[in-house]
Amino acid sequence: MNLQSMTGFARAVAEHDGTSIAWEVKSVNGKSVEVRLRLPQGLERLEPAVRQTVQKRFARGNFQATLTVGRAAGQQAQPVVNEAFLRDLAGLAKRLQEMFGAAPATADGLLSLRGVLDIPETVETEEARVALDSAILSALEVALGGLEQARQGEGTALRSLLSGHIDAIEALTLRAEADPSREPAVIRERITEQVRLLMDASANLDASRLHMEAAFLATKADIREEIDRLKTHVASGRVLLAGGGAIGRKLDFLAQEFNRESNTLCSKSNAAAITAIGLELKAVVDQFREQVQNLE
Fold first, then answer.
1. What's the rounded Cα separation, in Å, for the pair 56 and 38?
2. Which of 76, 119, 168, 239 is the residue whose CA sits 20 to 30 A from 280?
């Protein structure tokens, strides 16, 4: 399955029985599916169906859908002029001008008078209303299809970025695993040196007890468990990316696990090289998590 980002834009236009239909839809990041609508007056009845259509198609995102409906060219209702009334008003205006010197009447002034010009309302049958609603929802499906393609296009780019981050996390994990500071001989030498320094500082210290304490601390600082978990998380991330679909939440949880292990790696480290790897790992994990926030 394809990955989808949560950002995109699409537009679709259609015409039905002399009526022009235009949808504009866009989406941005969101924790769930939230839909904001802008519908023309008189078409509020479509709101439940529009919301349901969006929610069926997408798993996450804040959506805004705007519908514009108008009469196509040549389909506007024709105005009706009450010519008899208009003639009476024109004659009255002329007499007022001759008798009282009133300003001459203008065409737009006469036409603006109530009762002169009328635009008849279109009577919509139930059958016509159902047909129009169906055409509007069909156009919405086209717009949402375009939005889905836009989100998938960005999702493909995100898959490549996330895969690269996972490769980097794996490489750093293997570097930490193979670092010479984790060799038993190196650890033993470091412990011996630390004990020697302490004994030189105070002759009253028990050498055997110091060796035991140092060995305990060395065991506690071992990062084998963190390395194994990081390897497991890397494998899980690759499986999720290969499967696709709405995996944003799962990858976000995985990013938290990566972050936890990198923090522990740094806190348990008793070698500068391991600490440096842990800090580099944290930087990559931060980039990974930032990109994951954009996924559905």
1. 19
2. 239
* Rounded CA separation 263/71 (Å): 63
Over the stretch 139-176, which tens digit does the pLDDT of each residue have?
A: 999 999 999 999 999 999 999 999 999 999 999 999 99
What are 8-36's pLDDT values in tens digits?
A: 999 999 999 889 999 999 999 998 999 99
Q: Return the DSSP state at 82.
A: -
Residue identified by tokens 């740094």 is 266
Does domain 154-294 correspond to CATH entry 2.40.50?
A: no
Q: Whole-model pTM?
A: 0.70
Quickly tell me which residue has 């208009």 as its tokens: 86
DSSP string, the chain: ----BS-EEEEEEEEETTEEEEEEEEEE--SSEEEEEE--TT-GGGHHHHHHHHHHH-SSEEEEEEEEEEEPTT-SPPPEE-HHHHHHHHHHHHHHHHHH-PPPP-HHHHHTSTTTEE-PPPPPPHHHHHHHHHHHHHHHHHHHHHHHHHHHHHHHHHHHHHHHHHHHHHHHHHHHHH-GGGSHHHHHHHHHHHHHHHHHH-TTS-HHHHHHHHHHHHHHT--HHHHHHHHHHHHHHHHHHHH-SS-HHHHHHHHHHHHHHHHHHHHH--SHHHHHHHHHHHHHHHHHHHHHTTB-
Residues of the chain with CATH 3.30.230.70: 8-73+124-152
Query: Which residues make up the CATH 1.20.140 domain(s) of the chain?
Result: 154-294
Q: Please say whether the structural domain 8-73+124-152 has been given the CATH code 3.30.230.70.
A: yes
